Request: fold
Amino acid sequence: MNFMRRVFPIAGLMIAVAPLSGCNILIPDVAADSPARFVQETSPVFYQPPGVDPRRVRPIPDQPVPQTRELYKTQFHQTYGLPVTNPVHAAMYGELRDEDFTLPPIPVSRMQPQFLRQEVDYQTTERPGTVVVDTKARFLYFVEAGGKAMRYGVGLGRDGYAWSGRGVVQWKQKWPRWTPPAEMVSRQPDVRAFSAENGGMNPGLQNPLGARAMYIFKDGQDTLYRIHGTPDWQSIGKATSSGCVRMLNQDVVDLYDRLPAKAEIVVM
Reply:
């Protein structure tokens, strides 16, 4: 008797569930009743603002596919608005402690990138260790082995004052004293205070010769022209100096360390 009481409720439940086998009991099978009802109950519901007829709303036209952009033509990244910086340049042209002076960083983002120091392919008949100054392109090349050269951007002398030819870097000096030649003093009387008889200008960050100077001789005579550093980074790539080859201070330090004694120089 107790057994029958247990079996009958279970059997009844199985009979009641049997018609629902194969279905999700939470979602009625309305498709079996009426296709129209199925569409009505399953169609999506859209937000319709009052007074707006969705049949008259025009679809948004397809947007054009973005084209490839020149990302490095300007200071800022065209896609993300981030500054375009090169960590190598930041290291080469950052603040530099040298002797008793600290060279300030160069704002390389404001310079034309071709005038920044870089190793390039360079085919020449000049032997390694020679300096070649291309006055038209405003580049100085330190010739290396294997068809390579270290290239630097330079500022050059104004037309009428620039020197050209083949010579020798007779000697070089760290943090030199600037002594303008007599010809310059006669043209620019304001520099007379730094003439030879007055002892010249002391080394320093404002000294026109910058952190290093390399003195160019020809046939044993001083040409009075120099390769030297400059605090005026904006002059690089231009013809603004009185005949000398001027470099960024960080670059002239680098060249000074590479340059062998009595190195040959060609200015063309």
